[in-house]
Amino acid sequence: MNVRRYNAANAVNPARTPTTGTGGDTPEVSLEGSAGLDRALASVPDVRPEAVSRAKALIADPNYPSARNLKQLSGFLAQHLLSGVAE
Hints:
The chain has a domain at 51-87. 47% of the residues lie in helices and 0% in strands. It has helices spanning 34-42, 49-60, 67-86. It contains three helices and no strands. The protein is flat and about 55 Å long. With 87 residues, it is mainly alpha-helical.
């Protein structure tokens, strides 16, 4: 049975500078993949045309939001407002 004993020298100390290298239990962190992530993020458009066109269609729809959705939302809000008063 492998029992790990507490040792004050091994306790977490935020003031201690972390070590780097391949020795011990400390994993080495590599940031080489972040360049690819940065390129992928840069290729994502700031505005999504499909989301804009969907929003415009919903705004133009006189039945949006539906009476059912409004009833559900109002019930949800009333329930949470009432539960907040009791607390």
